[in-house]
Design goal:
Blueprint lengths: L5 H5 L7 H14 L6 E2 H7 L10 H6 L5 E3 L5 E4 H5 L2 E3 L2 E3 L5 H24 L3 H41 L21
Antiparallel strand pairs: 1-3, 2-3, 4-5
Helix pairs in contact: 2-6
Length: 188
């Protein structure tokens, strides 16, 4: 028997076809009178193959301890409600089959758990855009600080270059002759 991962169990009912598989297993284990602890082979035969939402029926049961219990050797499975309501007859434990009402209550409980997990998932769904906005704001802030620092450094270099240019003596240039408007000949 493999133990379930905490992250897997948190939203276990939201896996595809999980609720249907849990209901199928509950129904099978509730109605069977001959076999109380069921082996994996018998469960697979009665339910026409493996579950759609897990590797096998025992893995599915391991992720839902609220409904299922394993034998001490971990090779067989029983419905938890049947295990709790066991009786002793002739010094042997017997696990009576559940009534239709009891089975219906378990199915309703599975549906309720599915709905609660869905609500929890939807309630936490707002966190994705929130974290995206926070990360975008941090990136924008870092980019702005980097740009400001780069611009400041470039301005300091330009100021230094300007000061050096001012300190260099400029060659004297030949003064341009000034032409007076009176001396210009007018030709027409």
């Amino acid at each position: 028997m493999k133990k379930a991962n905490k992250n897997t169990v948190k939203y276990s009912y939201l896996q595809g076809d999980r609720l249907a598989d849990v209901i199928r297993l509950i129904t099978l284990l509730a109605k069977t009178e001959l076999f109380t602890f069921r082996e994996i082979k018998g469960i697979g035969i009665d339910l026409n193959g493996p579950p759609k939402s897990a590797v096998g029926w025992f893995e599915l049961a391991a992720e839902h301890p609220e409904f299922f219990r394993f034998s001490q050797d971990g090779e067989r499975l029983v419905l938890l409600l049947r295990f709790v309501s066991r009786i002793i007859v002739n010094q042997q434990e017997q696990y009576p089959a559940l009534s239709i009402d009891q089975t219906q209550k378990l199915v309703e409980q599975a549906i309720t758990l599915h709905d609660k997990q869905l609500q929890l998932y939807q309630r936490n769904d707002f966190k994705v855009p929130l974290w995206t906005a926070v990360i975008a704001a941090i990136v924008t802030l870092v980019t702005t600080v980097f740009s400001w620092y780069s611009t400041k450094e470039i301005n300091q270099r330009l100021d230094l270059m300007t000061k050096k240019m001012d300190s260099v003596t400029v060659r004297k240039s030949i003064p341009a002759t000034v032409i007076k408007p009176d001396s210009v000949s007018r030709t027409r």
